Amino acid sequence: MVETGLSPALFLCAATILHVSLDFSERLKAMPEGWLHAMGINVTHATQDEVRAELTVGPEHLQGYGIVHGGVHSGLIESLASIGAALYALPRGQSVVGLENSTSFVRAVREGAKLHSVARPITRGRRTQVWEARVLDEEEKVVATGRVRLLCIEADQQLAGETVTTPLHRPE
After folding, report:
1. How confident is the model at residue 164, as a pLDDT?
2. Do the strands 128-136 and 158-159 form a parallel or antiparallel pair, or are they unpaired?
3. In this predicted model, what pLDDT tens digit does every residue of 94-109 receive, in sequence order?
4. How many CB atoms lie within 10 A of CB 13?
5. For residue 46, how many other CB atoms are within 10 A of its CB?
6. Which residue of 6, 37, 61, 171 has the lowest C-beta tally within 10 Å?
7. Cα end-to-end span (Å), the chain
8. How wide is the angle at C-alpha 165 spanned by C-alphas 98 and 127, nearest 5°?
């Protein structure tokens, strides 16, 4: 028997993810994360090496000038980086949390635009990961780019005063 250092529950979770993590997107759809679901973002591909998503811009994504609010791009970029980083960290008995998000808005888009995004790792260490992402329009023109730095949290570390007990948020 191989000693993993993981609790039985975390080991089972990691083994389950490894079993399906060639593409974790269907699993994400079965247990949607609150913000992604509220924004109508569809994760189409999710592995520890690349995460992709699609979004059709609606009125809920717009700011006062009728263009996509920068927070939508920032949130999309951070969400995809966090998903990929978590898929890499989970088998190691870790969770991840964002430390820094630097997003540049390159091109304004309006309601009805169909956007897609891709995030990939730049570096993945024991304590931190850095991911980069791009948001593109239907013509493959860059709409936004970003980098996200994430902290890898050990199973016994606290986050906001509580021990992280599950790798995915599950509302009560």
Report:
1. 73
2. unpaired
3. 999 999 999 999 999 9
4. 18
5. 26
6. 171
7. 36
8. 40
HEC per residue, 98-134: EEEEEEEECCCCECCCEEEEEEEEEEECCCEEEEEEE
The DSSP H or E segment spanning 97 is strand 94-105
Answering whether pTM is above 0.85, one says no
Backbone angles phi, psi at 145, to 5 degrees: -135, 155
Closest CA to 154 of 7, 3, 1: 7
Domain coordinates in residue numbering, the chain: 8-156
Kindly tell me the burial class for residue 51, based on how many C-beta atoms sit within 10 Å of its own C-beta (0-12, 13-18, 19 or more): buried
Q: Are 129 and 85 in contact (CB under 8 A)?
A: yes
Tens-place pLDDT, residues 20-64: 447 878 777 776 568 888 999 999 999 999 999 999 999 999 999
Check whether 19 has a pLDDT greater than 60. no
